[in-house]
Amino acid sequence: MHRRDKLFDPSQAPETLERIRASEPEARQDFVIFFTARSGSSWLTEVCENTGFLSRPDECFNPEFMPEMTQVLGARNMDEYVEVLRRRRNTKGLFGCEAT
Q1: How far is residue 56 from each of residues 37, 42, 59, 64, measured CA to CA in Å?
Q2: Which of 90, 98, 95 is nearest to 39 (CA)?
Q3: Is it the case that residue 93 has pLDDT exceeding 80?
Q4: pLDDT greater than 60 at residue 4
Q5: Given the DSSP bridges, would you call strands 29-34 and 94-99 parallel, antiparallel or unpaired?
Q6: Per DSSP, what are the bridge partners of residue 97?
Q7: In whole angstroms, what is the distance from residue 90 CA to residue 94 CA?
Q8: What are residue 12's phi and psi, to 5 degrees?
Q9: With the C-alpha atoms ordered 70, 75, 76, 78, is the resulting torsion angle positive or negative?
Q10: What angle do CA 63, 50, 30 make, to 5 degrees?
């Protein structure tokens, strides 16, 4: 299996995650945009991001994007992935994401 095909790599060094934990607070509130194909979710996500306080609710749980994102963020499992997302995409205490 190619490394990018795996969702998580438990052998990753924890430095990236620890740096994020030390420098970025975790969100206090969450929201999810549920959508179907061709429903305008990209437009809604852009509107949310442009407000400056509704986070950046991308498709961070899309299996197509997760392998690369987990590697970049240093997440070794789902718990760490959710934690780091809630820190990195925290806007004024709010985390948002999209789910289909």
Answers
A1: 19, 11, 10, 18
A2: 98
A3: yes
A4: no
A5: parallel
A6: 32
A7: 5
A8: -60, 145
A9: negative
A10: 50
Degrees, nearest 5: CA angle 26-32-37? 140
CB distance 77 to 10 below 8 Å: yes
Band (1; pLDDT cuts 50, 70, 90): very low
Strand-pair partners of 15: none
User: Could you tell me which residues are beta bridge partners of residue 94?
Assistant: 29, 91
Alpha-carbon gap, residue 47 to 17, rounded angstroms:
29
pLDDT, tens digit, for every residue of 53-83?
A: 888 898 999 999 999 999 989 899 999 999 9
Burial class (CB in 10 A: 0-12, 13-18, 19+), 22: exposed
Collapsing DSSP to helix, strand or coil, 92 comes out as coil
CA distance 90 to 77: 20
Q: Which residue reads 């995650």 in tokens?
A: 17
